[in-house]
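Worked Example 4.2. Consider the chain below.
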Amino acid sequence: MNMNTRTSTRELYRNRDNSPLDRVQIRRVAPSVFADREDNSRSKKYRFVSSDSLLDQMEEAGFLVVGAQEQRSRKPDGTPIRKHLIRFAHRDVLERTRNERIEVVMINSHNGSCSYQLMAGIFRLICTNGLIVGARIAAINIRHMGHTGDEVIATSLRLASETPRIMDDILRMQGVELPYRRQVDFVHEAAQLRMGDDYEDRIRPEALLSPRRWNDIGFTAGGQATVWQCFNRVQENLIRGGAPLKPKEGDAYRRRSLRALNGIDGNTRLNRELWDLADSYTLHN
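Applying the procedure from the previous section yields the following C-alpha cells:
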C-alpha cells in the first residue's frame, strides 16, 4: 500500500447476545459495505459488486450478518478506500445452541486491494472468538471482472455444506491429546507465524499457552491438553494480544504486552495458518 495512505482497523463487531446485526449497525461499523461505486482508480474492466445487494441475496438464502469490520483508509486527497469483512451464519444454525457454529466469512473492497473472498469460519460461543478454517477447506477468490451475486450465493452454500467435514476436524482435534513438550513445540511454531524468526527475542512463547477461561484448561500445569484446547488458547492469545513481551535492552522496567491483531489481512492470514498448524498436529502427532 502507498506509504501516504493512512489505515486503521476496528475490531470485529458482534452483538453481545450473538444475534444478527441490522442494517443500522452494519452501516455504523462498516459504511463501505453500502458504497455505490468503485474507487476512481479502477479500469473499465473492473466490475463493481455492491456488498449491500449481496446482503439482501444472502438473507434470501438464509444467511444473516452476525459480524462486521472495516479497514479505514484514506488517501491524502481524502478519497476513501475501504476493505471490509462480513461474517454470516445461516438462520438454521442460529436457532440451534451448540458450542461452535460454522460461519461464512466474506472479504470485499471497492478499490482493487483484494478480490472478493469467501471462506469458512468457526465461531466459539463460549468466548465469542472467531476462527477461520485453513487450506483444507478451500477459500474462494472471485475477481471483480464479471461475477454475479448468484455465484456468490452458490459459493456460500457450498461452504456451508462443508459443515460436517469441519465438525469432523474439530472432533479430531478434541480427540488427540498433546503432552506438554508437544504443546511447547506447537506454541513455538505458532509464535513464529505471527512474530517472525526472532520471536524468542521478543516473547517467552510458553506464556501464550495460558488459558483465558476454564473451558480451555483441561490440564494441570505441565500436563496434557487436547490439540483443540492448545490451539484455542494460543490462537486467542496471539489474536487478542495481552501476553507479556520481553523488555527491550535498557528499558527493563517498562512493561509491554503483545498488541491485538485487528487488521483484516493479518488476522485472516494468521487464523488460517494456525488452523492448518493445529490440523497437522492431529495428523502427525
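Confidence is low (pLDDT under 50) at residues 1-8, 75-80. Strands lie at 6-9, 63-74, 83-90, 100-109, 116-124, 129-132, 140-142, 177-178, 225-226. Compare this with Example 4.1 before moving on.
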